[in-house]
Amino acid sequence: MLIHEDRLFPSDPGQRRIAKRLYSQVRTLPIISPHGHTQAAWFQKNEPFLDPATLLVQPDHYIYRMLYSQGVSFEDLEIGQPAVKDARKVWRIFANHYYLFRGTPTRVWLDFVFEELFGLEERLSASTADKYFDTISEQLERPEFLPRALYERFNIEVLATTDSPLDSLAEHEAIRDSKWKARILPTFRPDAVVDPEFVGFRENIAKLGEQTGEDTSTWAGYLSALRNARARFRSLGCTSTDHGHPTAQTADLSAAEIERLFHRVLAGSTDAQQQELFRAQMLTEMAAMSMEDGLVMQIHPGSTRNHNRKLYERYGRDIGADIPRPTNYVDALRPLLDRFGNERGLTIILFTLDESTYSRELAPLAGHFPCLRLGPPWWFHDSPEGMMRFRELTTETAGFYNTVGFNDDTRAFLSIPARHDVARRVDCAFLAKLVSEHRMEEDEAFEVAYDLTYGLVKKAYRL
Questions:
Q1: Pick from 304, 297, 332: which is nearest to 320 by CA?
Q2: How confident is the model at residue 318 (pLDDT cuts 50, 70, 90)?
Q3: Nearest 5°: phi and psi at 51?
Q4: β-strands 348-350, 296-299: how paired?
Q5: pTM of the model
Q6: Beta partners for residue 403, in sequence order
Q7: Of 44, 204, 345, 363, which sits with the fewest C-beta atoms within 10 Å of its C-beta?
Q8: CA distance 96 to 75
Q9: Which homologous superfamily does the CATH classification assign to the domain defined by 49-143?
Q10: pLDDT score of 381
Q11: What is the DSSP letter of 320?
Q12: Number of neighbours of residue 303 by Cβ within 10 angstroms
């Protein structure tokens, strides 16, 4: 078999027994997926997925960034194409290089998908590539593998997408109008209209004005347009915003200062420092709006996006070339926290790609300010090792209840159950260690395991 029933549990027999008892209580709890990048159109159209390559390889930058690092070209993988023309060829390339994923979380997720969903038990390789392709292709044609059927099979209670303020959200409206009893919710991601470095930024602001009927050439009109867009998202069930800024820098400028800066930004006459100042101010403005409308605020800083300039120019954004960078939180968040840090009605969830900040900055901040919570290990660190490091470095200061459970943050729909299963197993392993060391009673560990799996995420994201 591809996956062992005791995977990710402690090697110590006593701790393993405790971890398995804890896991048995949370294994089948519903999945809450409050932040991710799946497509609402999948569930609106509810059409069969085309083929294994289009479903599993093309949308997953964890896969193709690894293949690219070993010399596999994007042309051969047909990345950036609206549809894969030679899906079997792409799949064979992937299968031939599957050994590259040994020891990675991607291997754990994929093996789970192959065995649990498709019943495959031989390891993927060049010799089994066609068997895999044919088996998966055949099953994708069955009704039980349609997107809505998989949503229900996965026991998903809530699934949030990530959407631009300029998105029509037509697919979300269609899902709502279809009367299907599922919660597919949009998330407000305003980068396109708050980041002066975003391609088409000024045109995006003009379009936002057209959509909302506001004069976005003025600061007041621009803010009103953003409020209107947020209200539209909220009408379709949105409970959170998401901000992918390069840093966590915030600012709290005077009205006159920000008005002047806004007009300079619109005129395209700002330098890098002024663009960063505008983004910093907009995080504070978004927090102010969250105080008004109750949307939970997520901040995902610290990524040098599109680091491979050649690939960016040819294929566009988000093709696996983003690289973590050091991130400051204590100084960067101070202007925002000076204004809103003590507000109990505001929730700001902080993420990081800089693990050195866990115990030094993030846990102490979240362990003090009522508005702050810590998001789970993200992106490069949503691995078993990364999850364990997170618990070890943050629990001593922030505890469990200043964290928000797990989110999968994935474009690969079929990996959602696998990712949540990994998180549940790792959390149970961590709790088992505390119980075995007599730092927590087992009945308490059962309560914490439930909260880390289900309770905290529902509370934090107001679901």
A1: 304
A2: confident
A3: -170, 165
A4: parallel
A5: 0.96
A6: 374
A7: 345
A8: 16
A9: uronate isomerase, domain 2, chain A (1.10.2020.10)
A10: 95
A11: S
A12: 20
